[in-house]
């Protein structure tokens, strides 16, 4: 597994307060505890620093809806109750990136309306315009946004690497079983292995 400075991008998905902060409306369902047990945010911070030192393209993707929740998938088992519970409202604390991993400098920001980071977003166009062929993925949740994005990226012919200990799920069983499935379409590796990579 090798990465090229000119063709690699790090994509960080849904590290927003509602999802990963201990006071977040979704995080309290398991994500925050998972992060505390596994020191995940510190590891993601190391991954981001490594990528920036390599001059890789760094992209932050987050879920967000307007305050009138348009377009909001009311029939979705995952997002259907967002409007009722006032979750994932754009330009509020809940959809801000958690301070430890906040968007910095020349990082790119994309807001999405669904699980998959590619769905109805300019992500694919951005990657192609930068001649990116290799993607390094981290984010929350392993079984949702990370998995969905990895599978879509694979079908778009990107070379995909998922950094296992820089992803978050509601518990370790869900996290590990999803990573095992992803080995069919991506390289699944650890932060330690990633940090050893050279240009």
TrEMBL record:
UniProt-listed SUPFAM superfamilies: Isochorismatase-like hydrolases
Molecular function, one GO term: hydrolase activity
Keyword Hydrolase attributed: yes
Occurrences of domain Isochorismatase-like (ranges): 8-192
Keyword NADP listed: no
Stored InterPro entries: Isochorismatase-like_dom (IPR000868), Isochorismatase-like_hydrls (IPR050272), Isochorismatase-like_sf (IPR036380)
Entry-linked Pfam families: Isochorismatase
Keywords noted in UniProt: Hydrolase
Protein name: Isochorismatase-like domain-containing protein
Record organism: Paraglaciecola polaris LMG 21857
């Amino acid at each position: 597994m090798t990465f090229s400075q000119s063709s690699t991008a790090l994509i960080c998905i849904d590290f927003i307060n509602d999802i990963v902060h201990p006071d977040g409306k979704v995080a309290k369902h398991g994500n925050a505890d998972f992060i505390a047990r596994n020191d995940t945010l510190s590891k993601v911070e190391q991954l981001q620093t490594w990528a920036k030192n390599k001059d890789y393209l760094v992209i932050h993707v987050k879920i967000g809806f307007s305050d009138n929740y348009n377009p909001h998938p009311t029939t979705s088992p995952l997002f259907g109750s967002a409007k009722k519970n006032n979750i994932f409202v754009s330009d509020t604390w809940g959809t801000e990136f958690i301070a430890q991993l906040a968007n910095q400098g020349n990082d790119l920001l994309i807001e999405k309306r669904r699980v998959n980071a590619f769905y109805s977003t300019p992500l694919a166009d951005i990657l192609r315009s930068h001649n990116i062929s290799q993607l390094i993925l981290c984010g929350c949740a392993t079984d949702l946004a990370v998995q969905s994005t990895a599978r879509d990226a694979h079908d778009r012919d990107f070379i995909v690497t998922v950094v296992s200990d820089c992803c978050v799920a509601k518990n370790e069983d869900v996290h590990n079983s999803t990573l095992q499935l992803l080995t069919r379409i991506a390289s699944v590796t650890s932060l330690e292995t990633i940090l050893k990579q050279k240009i």
